[in-house]
Amino acid sequence: MMGMNKFGIPLAMMGLLFITGCNKENKPAGQEETKAGGFARSKTLYLGGSQWGDPNSFNPLTDWPAWPVNDKFNIMFETLLAYNTLTGKFEPLLGTLESQSADSVVVVLNPAAKWSDGQPVTSADVKFVYELGKRFKGAATAYAIDFVSDIKVSATADKAERLTFMVNKKGRNNPLVVLDFLQAIRILPAHIFEPKLAQLKDLAEVQKLKCDSNPVVSGPYNLETYSNEKIILKRRDDYWGNAALHGGKLAGPQFIIHPIYKSNDAFAIALAQNDLDATQTYIPRIWMKKNAGVMTWYDKEPYFVPGAVPTLLINSTRYPLSDKAFRRAMAFAIDYKSIKDLAVSGYSPDIKPGAIMPFGIEAGFYNDEDAQKYGAAFNVESAKKILADAGYKSVFKADGTLDKMIDGKGKPVPTLFVKSPAGWSDWEAIVTLAVKGMRAAGIDVREGFVDAGLYWQSQPVGDFDLEMIKPAASVTPSQPWSRLAALMSSRTWAPPGEKMNENQGRFNNPKGKGYIKAVDSLLSVIPTLTDKAALTQAYRQLNILFMQEQPALPLCYLPEQFYQVNTKTWTNWASEANPYAPPNLPWAGAATKMLWELKPAK
Amino acid sequence: MLKQYPTARYILHRGGWYFLTFLVAVTINFFLPRLGASNPVDIIMGKAGSGLDTEAAREKEESYLKEFGLVQVDATGTILRGPDGKPLKSSNVSQFFNYVKMCFQGDFGTSFQKYPKKVTTIIAEAVPWTLALQLPTIMFGWIVGNVLGALAAYRRGVFDRVFFPLALLLSAVPFFAFGMLLVYVCAIKNGWLPAMGGYAGDLVPGFNFDFFKSAGYHYILPFFSIFLILAGGQAIGMRSMGIYELGTDYIKYAKWLGIKENKILLYLFRNAMLPQLTGLALSLGGMIGGALITEMIFSYPGLGMAILSAIQGQDYPMIQGCTLLVTISVLIANFTVDILIGFLDPRVKAGQMGGN
C-alpha cells in the first residue's frame, strides 16, 4: 500500500491554487485596482452597451466606426443641433436653429465653436460633410444630397455664419429628413480630412485610416486610449462649449470608460455591482436591482420612455396575407397584454391600435376616436368572426389545438411562418406569444426562428410570410412619419426578389389592383406641411388607412435606448422627477448635457 | 527507402498524411462559409442600411461588394454589370486563388465586420488571452486528473469512494452552468473575486505589475470553471483505464515478481495513458478555437467570441483566418501526439509501418 504522502503532492498543488484564490476574499472585487490605472472611480463615468466587439476604427468617415464616433453620439464629433427626444425640441450645439419652412432650414453656427487644434468650426466644415456625396458615392453621408440641394452661407448681424439648408425640391422634397440630418450628421474638420483626401486621392483609402491617435474633434471628450476590452475618453478642459453652452462649467467626469463585455448579462452584473454607471442593454426585471442603486426614468412600470415599436411585418403579396380581412383578424387575435407582461418585463405601456404612439411627441397626431372606430384590439371572438365572414374555417383537434385552416373555396390555407433571428431572446418571446394568440383564434401561424444572416437577407427581398422588425427605431424629428413610411411607402416599390429598404412587406403595389393612392400621397405631403391642423389631419388619415389595411402588426412599445443608471458613484441623473435632459445615455442627442449636471455621490 | 531508420520513416509518413489533410482542410475552410445561403453584405446592410431609402441602400450595398472584392470590377474600378444592371459577382474560384496567394504572404485580408481592421491583427490581439487561459488549464487539468485517476484506480479504498463520485459529479456538470455558479457564489453573492473581464475596468494592458496582478486576479474564476471539470473528466477516464490495466497479466506478473509499487504504478500509468493522450491532443488542438462559453460568461478576452461573430456575420476573411489557425493547431497537436504515442507505445509504430 502507498503512503499518504504519495498523493499529497497534487492535492497540495490544488490546495495552493485554492489558497491563492481565496486569500484576497476580504477585499471586494475590483476595489484594490481602482488606484492602479490612474482612472479614479470617483472621477470616471462608466457607460455601456454601445460598443460590441473589438473597436475597429475611430474614423468618422466610415460607416460603422467604434463608439463614440458611431450612431448619433456627439461627445467627440458634434452635430449642428441636439434633438431632445422628450420634448421634441432642438437644442443648440454647434449651431442654433433659427427658422424652418417647407423650403429651407436655417441654422446659425456658434461663432465660439472650435476644433481641438484651435481652428474655428466654419461653414466649410459643414459643407464638407454634407456635400461629400457629390464627390464620393461611397460616403456615409452621400444620401444627404438627395435632400439638401444647397447650403447657402450668409453673415448675421453679429458676424456669425448663417447656414440655409435648401430643401431639394427636385429630389426628395422632404424637410423632415433635413431636420433629421441636422441632429444626426456630425460635422467633421475639413482642414484635417481634405489634405488626406488630396493625398490618398480616394475616399475608400481615407476610410482605411483608423484616426485613433489624438484626433481633432469639437466635442467635450476625446479618445484617450482603447483596447479590445474598453474605450477610454478624457475630458477636454478647453472645450469651447463649457463657456458658450454650459455657463463656464466643466463636465463632471474627467474620464468616460466604455467597457466591452461579451453578453447582456455582463452589463447587468456590472451595473448592479456599481462597476458601470449606466447601460443601454436590455436587463429583464430591472426593479429587482433597485437596492443596488439602479434607477430608470420612471420608478414604476413602464420604467422607460417608449420610442420604438417592435412590429410584425406582413408580406402582402402572399396568400392569404394579401387578404385584408385575414390581416385584420391577426391584429384582433394577438394578446398584446401578455406580450407586454411576459416578453418585455412590462417595459411597455398598453398598446393602442395604429402606428402612431398615443403619448409623448407623437400624442398630438394620435386620435383615440379613430382608434376605437377603426383599430383592432385583442378580442378572440372578433378575430374568429372576421375569419368566418371572409370564408375561412379553422379545424381544431380534439385537445383544442389548431389542426388546419380551410379557405372559402375549400382549399387548405398554407401554414404561415414568422421569421425572426434565432437567439434574440426578447424577440423570440414576443413572437412566441403573438403566435400563441393567433393559433388560439384559429390562424395557422408558426414561429420560424432563423440564423440572423438569413434574417437580414430575407428582409429587403421580401422572402417571408411575417417578419419581426423595428421600423425606423430612432426617435428623430421625422417621427412618426419615418415609421409610417417604413411600413407603408411604395415609392420605391419593387417585386419580391428585388430589394426594397422600406415597406419590405410590399403593401400597396402601385401597379396592382386596388392601389390606394392616398397612402403615398399622404406620405409625400406630410413632410412639407407646416400648418399644425393640416398636419394632424393628414396623420389622422394615414393612421386610419393603416388600421383599415393593417399592413403590419405593431406589438408593443419599447424605449429607443434602455436608460438604466446606477446612482452610487454619480447622482443627479435626469428622470421623470427631474426631466432636465431626455432619457438617453449622456452621449446621445440632448442627453449629453447630463455630463455637466452629474454630481459625485457623497 | 529509409528502411534502416524506422523512426524517421514513421515521422515522414505521418507528416505526409498531415500535409495532405492540411491542403484539404484549407480548401474546405474557404468554400464552406460560401456554401451557405446568406451573404456578408446583406448582414452588414442590416446595420449600415437602416434608415436609408431603397436607392441609397442599393448604392451603399454596391460600394461594400466592391470594397470586399465580391463583385467584378474593370481596370478603372467600375463595377461590371450584367444585362439586368445588377453587378456581376466575382467567382469563387478567382476568390480562392486570391486567398491562397494572400495566405502565402501571411495576409488573411481585412475583416468585413471590423473593417478596416486586419484579420491578422484581430487574431494576434486575441490569441495570447486564449492561450493563457486554455493552455495551463488543459495541461493542469489533464495532469492532475490523470494522476488522481490513476491513484484512485490503484489505491481504491476510502480515497476512491470519496474521490470517484466527486469526479463523476464534476465531469457531469456542464461547464457553462458551473461557470455561472462560480460567478454567482464568488462574485455576485460574496464579492470575493471579480465577475468578469480579463483585468480591472480601469486598466489598460501593458507590461507593468498592476496589470499582471489584476490579470492574475481575474484569471482565477475562469481557470477553475474549466480546470475542475476537465480534471474530473480526465480522472474518471484514467481510473477506468487503470482498473482495466490492473487486471492484465503484466501487472499481476509484476506483482508476483515483487516489483516495487512505484514501478508498477509507472507501468500502469504508461499503458493507461495512451487513450488519454489522444484526448489531450484533441483538447490542445481545439484550444485555439477558444473557450467560447467561458469567454461569454466571464466576458474574458479571447478568440472564441471573434470566431462566433465572424461566423454569424459571414465575415469570410475572418472565418478563413481563424479556421486556418484552428486547422494548423489541431494538426500540429495531433501530429505531436502521434509521434509521442509512437515512442511511448512501440506497437503503434510497428503496426503503422507494417511492423516486422
| Pair of chains with the largest interface and how many residues each contributes | A-B, 82 and 83 residues
| Helical fraction of chain A | 25-40%
Radius of gyration of chain B: 26 Å
Range of strand content of chain B: under 5%
Radius of gyration of chain A: 27 Å
Which H/E pattern describes the elements of chain B?
A: HHHHHHHHHHHHHH
Portion of residues within helices of chain B: over 70%
Element layout with pairings:
The complex is a heterodimer of chains A (602) and B (356).
Chain A: H1 8-22, E1 44-48, E2 81-83, E3 90-92, E4 95-100, E5 104-109, H2 123-130, H3 132-135, E6 148-155, E7 161-167, H4 175-184, H5 190-200, H6 203-206, E8 221-226, E9 230-235, H7 240-244, E10 255-259, H8 264-272, E11 278-279, E12 294-296, E13 306-308, E14 311-314, H9 324-333, H10 336-343, H11 368-374, H12 380-389, E15 393-396, E16 402-406, E17 416-421, H13 425-440, E18 445-450, H14 452-461, E19 466-469, H15 481-488, H16 517-525, H17 532-549, E20 552-554, E21 558-559, E22 564-566, E23 570-571, H18 594-597, E24 599-600
Helix pairs in contact in A: 9-12, 10-13, 16-17
Chain B: H1 6-35, H2 40-48, H3 54-67, H4 92-104, H5 119-155, H6 157-172, H7 175-189, H8 209-246, H9 249-256, H10 261-286, H11 292-298, H12 303-312, H13 316-344, H14 346-352
State the main characteristics.
heterodimer, A: alpha+beta, Dipeptide-binding Protein, domain 3, five-stranded mixed beta sheet, 24 strands, B: 356 residues, mainly alpha, MetI-like fold, 2 domains, 14 helices
Outline of the structure:
The complex is a heterodimer of chains A (602) and B (356). With 602 residues, chain A is of the alpha+beta class.
